[in-house]
Design a protein that fits this description.
mainly alpha, rod-shaped
C-alpha cells in the first residue's frame, strides 16, 4: 500500500519546462544587451590585436637591424618589445579573462533580464500548481519533452510579450509553447543564450594567447 501511495503521489505532481533561448529571443532588452556586449568585445579585441601587430612589426625590424646595434641599443629595444608584450597580455586578461571586464559587463546587463524571467516563471508555476520547472535549453540530459508541458508562451505573456514573433529571426519549433501546458519551477533559466549561462561567457581571445595568462 505504501508503494502504491508513493506512485500515486508522484503521478499527482505536476512538472513543466521552458525554452529560455526561445524566451530570450522575444526580449528587446536581451537583444540590446547582446548587441552592446558584442560591440565592446569587438572593440577590445581590435585594440589588443593592434597591439600584437605593432609588437610583431617591432620584432621584425629589430631582428633586421640587430647586427648593426650596440649592446646597449639591443637591450633597450628588447626591453621595449617585452614591455609592450606584457601590456598587451595584461589588457587581454583584464578584458577577456575569467571575471574580466567583459564578464562583469555581461553580468550587469543580463542579471536584470534573468530576474525578470525568473519572476514570471515563479508566478506561472504557482498559478499552475507546478512542483518543478526545467529549462530545455540548459538540460542536455532531457531526451524527450512533451510540448503540452512547455510553459514558455505563458511566461512570455506574463511578461507582457507576444509569443511566436521572435526578434532574432528564429521561430519556435513546431508543437512547442502549447497553451495546454502545465508547468514550471523556481529554477532560473539557463542554456547557451540564457541569462545564467551567458553571464559566464568569454570574449574571443585575440592573437597572442587565450586571454587567460
Amino acid at each position: 500500500m505504501a508503494l502504491l501511495a508513493g506512485v500515486l503521489t508522484a503521478q499527482a505532481q505536476k512538472f513543466g519546462y521552458v525554452d529560455s533561448k526561445y524566451i530570450l529571443s522575444h526580449m528587446p532588452e536581451y537583444q540590446q544587451a547582446q548587441a552592446e556586449i558584442n560591440k565592446l568585445s569587438a572593440q577590445w579585441q581590435k585594440e589588443i590585436e593592434s597591439k600584437y601587430e605593432t609588437i610583431e612589426k617591432l620584432e621584425k625590424a629589430y631582428q633586421a637591424e640587430k647586427i648593426l646595434l650596440t649592446d646597449e641599443m639591443r637591450k633597450k629595444r628588447e626591453e621595449d618589445i617585452e614591455q609592450r608584450r606584457i601590456e598587451a597580455k595584461t589588457m587581454q586578461k583584464q578584458k577577456f579573462g575569467v571575471d574580466g571586464e567583459l564578464f562583469q559587463r555581461r553580468e550587469e546587463m543580463i542579471r536584470p533580464i534573468q530576474d525578470m524571467i525568473y519572476q514570471a516563471i515563479q508566478e506561472v508555476a504557482a498559478q499552475g500548481g507546478l512542483m518543478a520547472v526545467f529549462d530545455k535549453a540548459n538540460q542536455s540530459n532531457l531526451l524527450y519533452t512533451n510540448p503540452k508541458h512547455d510553459i514558455s508562451d505563458k511566461v512570455l505573456k506574463k511578461m507582457g510579450l507576444k509569443p511566436g514573433e521572435t526578434l532574432d529571426g528564429e521561430e519556435k519549433e513546431e508543437g512547442e509553447g502549447n497553451e495546454g501546458e502545465e508547468n514550471k519551477s523556481d529554477q532560473k533559466p539557463g542554456g547557451n543564450t540564457s541569462p545564467s549561462q551567458d553571464s559566464k561567457g568569454r570574449g574571443t581571445a585575440p592573437k597572442g594567447g587565450t586571454g587567460k595568462q
